[in-house]
Each structure stands twice: as structure tokens, then as C-alpha cells.
Specification:
alpha/beta; eight-stranded mixed sheet; 352 residues; 11 strands; three-stranded antiparallel sheet; Rossmann fold
Length: 352
Amino acid sequence: MNQHATLPPDVSADDAEILWTATGRPFVRTPDDCLDGLPDYPWEPRYAPVDGMRMHYVDAGDPDGEVVLLLHGQPDWSYLYRKMIPVLAGAGLRVIAPDLIGFGKSDKPVQLADYRFLHHVAWVEEFIDVLGLDAITPVVQDWGSLIGLRCVGNRPDRFARVVVANGNLLVLPEGVEILTLPDSLEPQDLAFPDVISPGGGMGLFEAWATYALVGRDFMPSVPMRATINADLTDAEFAAYDAPFPSRIHMAGPRTFPSLVNTVGDAPTNEAARAALEAFDRPVLGCFGLLDPIFGTPDSIAATREQIAGAVGQPHHDYPDAGHMIQEDVGADLAARIAAWMHDTPDPFGSTR
């Protein structure tokens, strides 16, 4: 696959303005009117400059409170955390919920080469630096866990605690690619693979990555409907599609599953995983057991048994929650995190 290609545009992309960073990276920006009136998402947009682009984030709660950093995955955006943000903010915490570059209200590169694991790690680390965040408690899930936990492994002194909610930090040998992807990026008529079925293995994940990359009818709401157990309205599902009005805006959600092939770009990923396992500040694991990827015993053990700070913590599993745990049990999960933080001394010198 040509990693410098852009996804073929559709008719609705004709009016999309291509913007450029000073270093020559082309990107697009979702028009504001696409994102007006989203249900239960009242927060004013804020933007941080990151690598010549705008990275959107929600900033809610007490500006002097302990920082909770909510990191989403694919194909969603910070809208995923709308049930959790009010609960955490109401507990006196400062809640920061960014949209990863390529998602939500953040700017969206159009070249596939810009969607690589280390790029996203670097962008999140730059975002943290731009906002001057310290003593952070990240809540990480899906690709937000691979990216966020890599940040913890890279810079453990910036983090006070960690909450892993359906996630893990995958380590691959340098240069290893575990997926075979299509050579052509032309849209194809593909059926949505039932990726939430247990026991599918890597073949099913490869089918999912291919579908996301070239499936003609792929939109974020398709896998969200398949992975959310809670009752959502059509307007809420439509909100997941809202940041992506045309195919040229879709490079992020379309390429992220195949991003697993770029994890091996990181020659120090084993060192980062070792640093994460040595992280001895409090680590909480909360998992939806209906998640066939991260709700498995091996995945759960990667947090609870392999990270030093997880020992003796009040971990909790949700038997009726799936991969999108924020949608299924978001309010309860947020209340559990807030109570745990208030009961856990801040290792940087204060207890709130």
C-alpha cells in the first residue's frame, strides 16, 4: 500500500480546503457547522497548537484540580466521554478530553504516512507540554491505551496514576508488520466483519482493518452500533459521524486499525513497556468483560499483574459492558475513578 497516498475523495469532498503546515503536511479541518447541536456535548471548543495543526480538547471542572486526561481510540472522538466528563468535573477534578489528530474537532492530515504510531505518541506528548500538564491521571482505552501507555512509559514522571479501561500497550519487534493490507485504496463493496465475535483471531482483525481502510460504506457509526450495548439514539450515533463529512476527512478512522503495522517502528517500544511495568504509582484496571479483545484474562493481566502500581488496587470488572465501556457504564466508571483518586494520595505531594 502506498503510505503517501491520500484516500480517494468522494463528491462531497470537492469543497474541502486543503491546509498546510509549515513543514508541508496537508490537512483538512471539519467545518464548524458539521458539529453544531450535538446531543449532550455542551462544551466550548478549545484548541492547542500541535505540530502546526489544531488539536481540539474539552477542558472542564476545577482548573486547579488534579488533571484527568481522557484518551479515546478509533473510530470515535471525545464525544465518547460525554457521560464521564460531568461526573469527574463535579468531583473537583480538571478534566481534559482531547481529540487525537485526525479525529473529532482536531485537524486531519490527508496523507496516510502521517498516521503512524509514533506520530500520535509525539502529538499527545506535545499536547501535554503545550498545556503544561503535570501529575496527570490518564484514562486510556482502545488506541488511546496504546498511545497513552506509551506516553507513560516514555515519561513516567509526568503521571500521578493510570486508569486502564479496556486497553493495553502492545509491543512488537522493530519492523514487524502483522497485517497484510490491500494494495489499492479504491473503495470496495465489503461487508462489515463481525469483529466483536469472540475467537476471531488475527484473521478477523485483518478483515476489520481492510474494511475500515477501503469499505465503501464505512462510517464510525457502523462499528459503534456493533460495539455499544447501551441504548443510544440515532442522533447520538450520528454525532460519531459528524466530524467526518467526506472521505477526505476520514483518513484517521480509516487507517487506525492498520496502524498496528507501525507499532514496530518504535525501536524503544520494549523499553517503554518495561518502564510502564515498573511504574509504581497507583494503577486501576476497569474492564468490560464483553470486550473480546481487551476483556480477556490475558489482557486484563497485562495491567493488574504486570504493572507494579496495580498491585492491591480496587480493580473492577463490568460483566455487561463491552469494548466501548464509556458508553455502556460511563457514569459509574467515572464515579469509581473519582472516588479512587480522592482515596489515593497524590504522589506529587497533595491529597485532594
